[in-house]
Amino acid sequence: MAKKFSRRNLFRLRLGDLSELARETIGTTEEETELEAPPGYIRPPGALAEDMAFLKACDRCKLCSEACPHGVIQHLGVADGPLEGSPFLQPETNPCRWCADMPCIHACPSGALTFQEDASVSPIAKAKLDKSSCLTESGILCDTCSYRCPQNIRAITMFGRSPKLNIDQCVGCGLCAYYCDSEPSSLSISLAETL
User: Is-above-0.85 flag for pTM?
Assistant: First the structure.
């Protein structure tokens, strides 16, 4: 197909020709477009590390969200194109409870959510602490983030009267950010590569 068109010829094109022209102009094939995943989605516990591998493995069955006892797993909608139906979380507004038995992983039939070889679960994200906005910096006694951090994780501990975040222990569940008493929250949750 010719790469250049006059305005008159452009209106004579069929719909199929337009989509082929668009692919040629952008330089991607239909298959490549379907597999592109925008960054920023926090996937459920046990998600394959590479988002592309996760998207290929996930069959959009929604069994993970049905198995979640806290209803925190959501699914992308029609507007998200080829990502439609894939699960994601918003830990700052609807935190993961990091269940001991991980029913979401057990419910996944495709292997998109899985335990590691040592039966552990990889972090879904990481917390970031802005100490300058923390209530303890104003002299207010507060240990909410430390108290809310799951007992089996203990990524936030109190050091004196200030919270200390151990990023290596953090799983990104979002409980600390969700319950933070600072306004706005002094804790945020992001994918590790965006921190």
Answer: no
